[in-house]
Write a structure and sequence with these properties.
It is built from eleven helices and six strands. It has a six-stranded mixed beta sheet, with helices on both faces. This is DUF4032 domain-containing protein.
C-alpha cells in the first residue's frame, strides 16, 4: 500500500516532473560539491562489508518508511541521496512508473535489504524515486534483513566509517603508512582512493619499464608519493584555492585537479601542466562560481527540454 502526498498529480505524463527532478539533481550535485555534504546513495556491499553483515534473514512483505531507504545494492550511481534521477536515460522508465502511480495501478512490492534501521534497494529504484518525490510515507517491500551489532539509523551517516575503511584498505595496499609515516591522504568523498590506486599502478608500470624489472607496489607508491603527489599538493597549497573549497581536503582537490588536467589535455591536445589545471579548476568550480553553475544547469535542462519538444511536441496532460 502506498501513502501519497497531497501534491500528487494524477493527470500528468511525468515529463514535466522528470525534467524538474533532473534540474534538482544537478543543483544538488553542485551544492554538495561545495558544502562537503554527501549527495550519493549508500552502496550496500560497502556498508555490509564494513559492518560485517554476512547472514541474512527473510522478513517477508512489510510496509517500510520511505525516508529510511538510503542506499542501493547496485544502482547507487543512478540516483542521488534524495533518489533524484541523475541521468536522462532513466526518464523512460521513471515516467512509466509515474503514470502507473498516477492511475493508482497496483505495482509489485520493491525488494529491500535492511541493515540496522535503514534499507537498500535491490529492485524497484524507480518506484522508490517516484514514491519519495511524491511525498509517500510508506511503500510495500519484500525485506531481507542483515543483522549487525553496530546500531545504524538514518541519523548516523555511515559514510565516515566507509571512508575510513577505504583509507585503511588503501594503506594496506600501498604501505605508505610505513614507508612515508608522515603522510595524511584524507578524503571526504567515497570511492576516491581507487583513483589513487589507479595512479600508483600506472606509476608502477612506468618505473618497471624504465628499470627493466618488476617494481614492487610499495616501492612504486613511495616514489609516486615523493615525485607526483607531494609536488602537486605543494602547488595546490601555494595557490591558496583551499579557501574556495572550505569543506574539502588537499587530497580531494588533488584527485579533482588531476582529473581536470586530463580533460583539459583531451580538449587542447597537449599537457596543460598542474599549475594551469589548478588555476582553471579554481576559476571554474570555486564557491564563488556556484550561482553561475546553477544557472548553467538550468539552461542545460531547458535546452534538452526544447530539443525534445521539437522532436516530439510538448508534453500534454493525459486527463482533465
Amino acid at each position: 500500500m502506498y501513502s501519497y502526498g497531497s501534491d500528487f498529480n494524477g493527470g500528468s505524463t511525468g515529463e514535466e516532473e522528470f525534467v524538474s527532478l533532473r534540474l534538482k539533481a544537478l543543483i544538488n550535485d553542485i551544492k554538495s560539491f561545495f558544502s562537503g555534504q554527501q549527495n550519493t546513495l549508500l552502496p550496500f556491499d560497502e556498508v555490509a562489508r564494513a559492518l560485517h553483515a554476512r547472514q541474512s534473514v527473510y522478513k517477508g512483505i512489510r510496509e517500510v518508511p520511505v525516508d529510511e531507504i538510503i542506499g542501493s545494492v547496485d544502482r547507487y550511481h543512478d540516483f542521488d541521496s534524495h533518489f533524484l534521477p541523475k541521468y536522462d536515460h532513466l526518464g523512460y522508465r521513471w515516467k512509466r512508473v509515474y503514470q502507473a502511480y498516477s492511475r493508482y495501478k497496483e505495482l509489485p512490492p520493491v525488494e529491500l535489504c535492511k541493515i540496522g534501521q535503514v534499507y537498500f534497494v535491490k529492485d524497484g529504484h524507480h518506484r522508490v524515486s517516484v514514491a519519495k518525490q511524491q511525498g509517500a510515507e510508506f511503500i510495500d517491500a519484500v525485506v531481507t534483513e542483515y543483522p549487525v551489532k553496530v546500531p545504524l539509523t538514518r541519523d548516523v551517516d555511515p559514510r565516515d566509517l566507509l571512508i575510513k575503511k577505504e583509507y585503511e584498505e588503501f594503506l594496506e595496499y600501498c604501505g605508505l603508512d610505513k614507508t612515508r609515516p608522515d603522510q595524511r591522504i584524507e578524503m571526504t568523498v567515497l570511492g576516491r582512493y581507487q583513483s589513487l590506486r589507479d595512479q600508483i599502478e600506472e606509476h608502477k608500470y612506468y618505473l618497471s619499464e624504465r628499470a627493466g624489472r618488476e617494481i614492487p607496489v610499495k616501492e612504486a607508491a613511495a616514489d609516486w608519493y615523493d615525485h607526483v603527489y607531494l609536488p602537486t599538493i605543494r602547488i595546490i597549497e601555494e595557490s591558496h584555492i583551499l579557501k574556495d573549497f572550505p569543506h574539502r581536503t588537499s587530497a580531494d582537490l588533488y584527485v579533482w585537479i588531476m582529473d581536470h588536467k586530463y580533460h583539459l589535455g583531451e580538449r587542447y591536445g597537449f599537457d596543460v601542466g598542474i599549475r594551469r589545471a589548478t588555476k582553471d579548476f579554481a576559476d571554474s568550480y570555486s564557491e564563488r562560481m556556484v550561482p553561475g553553475l546553477i544557472k548553467k544547469a538550468r539552461k542545460k535542462i531547458r535546452r534538452a527540454r526544447q530539443q525534445r519538444e521539437l522532436r516530439t511536441g510538448p508534453a500534454r496532460s493525459s486527463g482533465q
